Amino acid sequence: MWSSTFLRASKTAEILSNAIKCRVAFLDELRERQDMESKFDFTLRAQNVLSYYN
């Protein structure tokens, strides 16, 4: 399981991780962007994470 390093996401991931007995990896690349990220940029970033960590 992968999670953003933001507090809200990481707490949720830890709860789920404990419930299903699955390790969680916290990735800075999954952090939400504070600027106005376009849908294309978001898709590209998500694809990069999936191809790198898959």
Can you describe this structure in just a few lines?
The protein has 54 residues and is mainly alpha-helical. It has helices spanning 7-20, 39-53, and strands at residues 2-4, 25-27.
Structure in words:
This protein has 54 residues and is mainly alpha-helical. Helix content is 54%, strand content 11%. It contains 2 helices and 2 strands; from the N terminus they run E-H-E-H. It has a two-stranded parallel ribbon. The longest helix is centred in the C-terminal third of the chain and has 15 residues, at 39-53. The protein starts with a strand and ends with a helix. The mean pLDDT is 91.
Supply database-style keywords.
single chain, mainly alpha, two-stranded parallel sheet, 2 helices, globular
- Uncertain regions: pLDDT < 50 for 5+ in a row? none
Multimer state: single chain
Strands of the largest sheet, in order across it? 1-2
Radius of gyration: 12 Å
Secondary-structure element pattern, one letter each: EHEH
- Helical residues, percent: 40-55%
Q: What's the mean pLDDT score?
A: 91
Shape: globular
The percent range for strand residues is: 5-15%
Q: The biggest beta sheet, please?
A: 2 strands, parallel
Distance between the termini: 11 Å
Secondary-structure class: mainly alpha
Number of strands: 2
Number of helices: 2
